[in-house]
Amino acid sequence: MKKPTLIPNWKQAHRFHTVRLAAFWSVLNGGVLALAKFSDILDPWTFLALNCVGYGLIAVGRVLKQPGLD
C-alpha cells in the first residue's frame, strides 16, 4: 500500500474554501447536537436537509477554482 502524502501546498490548507466550510459545518453541527434537548425548536428532518445542503456545498467548494491557491 502506498504511503499517503500531503498536497504540495498543505501549509495553505486553512485558506481552502472546503476546509473553511467543513470547519464551519462541524461547529454548527456541534452546537445543534449540544442543544439536542431542545428538539422541539429544530425538526430532525430540517436538520437532515441542512446537513445535506451543507455537505453538498463542501463538495462543490472542492471542485471550484480558488484564486491565489495555484
The percent of residues in helical segments reads 40-55%
Q: Any low-confidence stretches, pLDDT <50, length ≥5? A: none
Query: Ends: how far apart?
Result: 29 Å
What is the total tally of β strands? 0
- Number of discrete domains: 1
Number of helices: 2
Strand content: under 5%
Question: What is the approximate shape?
Answer: elongated
Give, in order, the helices and strands. Answer: HH
* Overall radius of gyration: 16 Å
Task: Describe the protein in words.
- The protein has one domain (13-63).
- Helix content is 54%, strand content 0%.
- The protein has two helices and no strands.
- It has helices spanning 17-34, 44-63.
- Helix 1 (17-34) packs antiparallel against helix 2.
- The model has no long low-confidence stretch (mean pLDDT 76).
- The chain crosses the membrane at residues 21-39, 45-64.
